[in-house]
Design brief:
The protein is an alpha+beta fold. The protein folds into two domains: 108 residues, no CATH class; 44 residues, no CATH class. Strands 1-2-3-4-5 form a five-stranded antiparallel beta sheet. The longest helix is centred in the N-terminal third of the chain and has 13 residues.
Amino acid sequence: MELAQADIETRVAAELATIRDTEVRTALSALLTPPERHMRTWDWHSGLGDAPRYPCWLVIRHEQSDTGIVFSESGFGPEHPWGLVFLSRDGFGADSAWFASLEEAFCDSYAASPLPIWNVVRVLPDGTREVLYESLTLDVAFETRDQSRSGDADRTLHVQRRVIRDR
């Protein structure tokens, strides 16, 4: 059965309700656009003839980075129905740009990089993680990580999005 705009609006609302980080939810909500149906080419076509095209629903348009977030039950869906795509291209793109949730897709997008939601963490030998710096923008987090690594090759530092456990 073909999805309608109201179906996508309901899915987006349900996704928003699961986002615990209010900063992420607010930023994502500000970028939402009324769902717009369009067709995208399945980039992984290996058969003869034209590549198949499947319906997608654009829900976020980020013109500054030429990217958007779409929903599709085809392609990498239904397991990973939320995709980061280029606005100027009509393909589904790489599997690494498709996510199980709208929140994951948004946080992997350029639109989330200026949000102060990124931490620099150290992974200890026993696998536990220690937050060294928190609530940074993505660029500052990577700069901080790189500066903290200099002169100490044994430091296993990573940039990770903060996790909000309670509302």
